[in-house]
Amino acid sequence: MSKVVIIGAGPGDPELITLKGKKWLEKADVVIYTGSLLNPEILKYAKPNAELYDSATMNREEVFKVMAESVKAGKLVARVHDGDPSFFGAIQEQMDFLDREKIPYMRIPGVSCLQGGAATLNRELTLPNISQTVIITRPEGRTPVPEAERIRELARHQATMVIFLGAQHIGEVIKELKEGGYPKDTPAAVVYKATWPEQKIVQGTLDNIVEKAQAAEITKTALIFVGNVLDPAAYDYSKLYDPSFTHGFRRGDKNVL
């Protein structure tokens, strides 16, 4: 079946690709992958005779051309992104091209490095009475961000924040977080290449995380986690599993202390 399958391949560990993503990658005649970010071990699932294209060396039009010509030739194309491309994946422009050209395609979601990082930290990002909101963002770099979405503005919410593409600007990122209202003793962590063999984790507070990340020589391919969920002094247990809490699947026991 000739079409494009957009696959989120997971945060790095090749076993974290979904079963569905692996199945379609194994079938693909052509594989276009993000070589600058994807763990090359993922490509072991591709057919030995699959045509491989590293999009890190290609521009937008070159990627579009491979997709269109391959599908026209009756081939199945796997467009493989790291993590889940819903976040900073530049896939909307690809899907819009496929729509314009009436090229059939489907998407298979992946495990984001956000989830991979939270798992390596052994933290839940939403805790009762601590934070019920996760803000996913990035600092301004060569790609601008709307004024209302600058880190210092988002920091006013005091929610859990996960900052992509910020390791190389960590000094400025932490400065903006403090200016936005986070106390300097707010817990923070930097996770480099979550779930990869070379993974690094640095933990501290907004007051010392810059120095710790620099000492660990983390300058790219990392997420910055910020918020009290990383080291909560106290939090409420969930209502979902409270013995006295009634819901559609369980009758609460009012006699439980």
Please characterize this protein's 3D structure.
The chain is of the alpha/beta class and about 260 residues long. It folds into 2 domains: about 5-110, 3-Layer(aba) Sandwich (Cobalt-precorrin-4 Transmethylase, domain 1); about 115-230, 2-Layer Sandwich (Methyltransferase, Cobalt-precorrin-4 Transmethylase, Domain 2), CATH 3.30.950. The chain is about 25% helix and about 20% strand. The strands form 2 sheets. Strands 3-2-4-1-5 form a 5-stranded parallel sheet, with helices on both faces. It is globular and about 60 Å long. The model has no long low-confidence stretch (mean pLDDT about 95).
Q: What's this, in brief?
A:
The chain has helices at 19-27, 60-72, 92-100, 113-121, 151-154, 170-180, 209-215; strands spanning 4-8, 30-33, 51-54, 77-81, 105-108, 134-137, 160-163, 187-192, 200-205, 222-226. The chain is built from seven helices and ten strands.
Give the arrangement of secondary structure elements.
Blueprint: E1 4-8, H1 19-27, E2 30-33, E3 51-54, H2 60-72, E4 77-81, H3 92-100, E5 105-108, H4 113-121, E6 134-137, H5 151-154, E7 160-163, H6 170-180, E8 187-192, E9 200-205, H7 209-215, E10 222-226
Parallel strand pairs: 1-4, 1-5, 2-3, 2-4, 6-7
Antiparallel strand pairs: 7-10, 8-9, 8-10
